[in-house]
Design brief:
single chain; 11 helices; D-Maltodextrin-Binding Protein, domain 2; about 20% strand; 2 domains; alpha/beta; ten-stranded mixed beta sheet
Length: about 250
């Protein structure tokens, strides 16, 4: 009897081990910087608790869309809603996995150690941009429209750098730009740059980020688990510390 029980116990342990190994998958994530910096902090805990491995690829959403359209495999994408809209429409992600993650307001940033301009009011913000020698921002919805509404778009046009990659923060840190108008989370998570201040409340705009699971993911359950983790109690303090709000 004891031998039979021992054999059953060994078989049971073997089944548990096999199941754990099978569950230990790699999750490939295409993500905007806002979520990449959160995963940098909490990703190791997710890996420890699930046995899965995270392959985090940080970049610019339009580039990811080109890669996805070209057939590059992935499991999760974290990106602004407009990108997710297109991927849902084209059947590239599973619609019911769409998950609201975070949002971040915009601020004006300068190179670390540089004088911080006044951006406390709308008029002060306008003066700062009009007086700056060089300005950078990403072509995200809302900001170009704001500059048009404030009547300064044409006046600052010759001083603008609008790259097609997410490198405005890096250009600012190197001293290639005098000021940048970027999401606050990028300022707080980029060495070498500092926040002069958020946009004034009456003109503040936000960029939101959502996640979704690839329609062709080979690890859809693990991918869904990651999105749940990004909205859970482990993630929320990190999200807030990085200048964002959970959605």
């Amino acid at each position: 009897m004891m031998r039979a029980l021992t054999a059953l116990a060994i078989l049971f342990l073997a089944l548990i081990t096999a199941t754990s190994v099978a569950a230990a998958v790699e999750i490939k994530i295409f993500t905007s910087r806002a979520i990449a910096t959160v995963l940098e902090k909490i990703g190791p805990e997710f890996e420890r608790s699930t046995g899965s491995k995270l392959n985090v690829i940080m970049g610019f959403s339009p580039v990811f869309v080109k890669q996805i359209d070209a057939g590059e495999p992935f499991d999760v994408i974290a990106s602004p809603p407009g990108t997710i809209n297109g991927l849902v429409k084209n059947g590239k992600v599973i619609a019911d996995t769409r998950t609201k993650l975070v949002r971040s307001g915009y601020g004006v940033a300068v190179r670390a150690g540089a004088p911080k301009p006044d951006v406390s009011t709308t008029e002060a913000f306008k003066r700062t941009l009009l007086n700056a020698k060089s300005i950078g921002y990403l072509p995200t919805p809302g900001l170009p429209e704001l500059l048009e509404r404030l009547g300064i778009a044409e006046a600052i046009k010759s001083k603008l750098t609008i790259p097609k990659e997410d490198i405005v923060n890096a250009l600012l840190a190197k001293g290639d730009l005098e000021v940048a108008v970027i999401v606050i989370t990028q300022v707080l998570t980029t060495p070498g740059i500092e926040l002069a201040g958020p946009l004034p409340p009456d003109i503040q705009i936000y960029t939101s980020f959502e996640g979704a699971v690839s329609a062709s993911s080979k690890a859809p359950d693990a991918a869904r688990a990651l999105l749940r983790f990004l909205t859970g109690p482990t993630a929320i303090p990190i999200i807030k510390a990085q200048g964002m709000e959970p959605l």
